[in-house]
Task: structure prediction
Amino acid sequence: MGAETPKQFLELDGVPIVILSLRRIASCELVTDIIVATRGDEVARLEERIRAEKFTQTVSVVRGGDSRQDSVAKALEQVSNDTEIVLVHDAVRPFVTREQIARVIEEARKCRAAILGIPAMDTVKEVKRASLPEDVALITATIPRERIVLAQTPQAFSTKLLKEAFARAQADGVNASDEAGLVERLGYDVHVVLGSERNMKITKPADMELARSYMERERQKK
Result:
């Protein structure tokens, strides 16, 4: 993002993005408990801000790790083995809907693993860098678009399965870019529930402008 403030604490309409995302997750009645992983120096500030929200669910904040996978693992340690489904969501996806959250949970109840995703609209190329300059790559294949989806969150899994996937990854020294990747390597099927382009991940300055336009459209609908 290029800002001094971590992107999850940047504000839209005066509210930190992480709080907007929490509001969306908390709006789904199927969600009973929420655990937020964050940097150690942010725990106290986030706990105070969350208390002001007065969520009906129990919301706890834990110290995360050096990577996404480490942070999710820290949160997962706090999840009881009796919990049916674990839902993992990016702090910087504040436009997910209650219906999308419920739908991915329901699918995970059926098949043990489900994520939100959207079809790829662009042509996708597989490349290799070889000995070319940093800004140049060589195309090795064109991947049919109908075989490609862009993964989103929430991603939902049976608790036992997700904990097994994390334990195996730690033992094998594997680090994946999302939880589905860890489950896939165990040989389990992961279903994709249709998400939406609006369920964007805010990662760069241009995304903030788009997010503000989404917020304005939502205000106009009220």
About this structure: The first strand starts at residue 11 and ends at 12. The helical segments are 17-26, 43-53, 68-76, 98-111, 159-172, 179-184, 205-221.
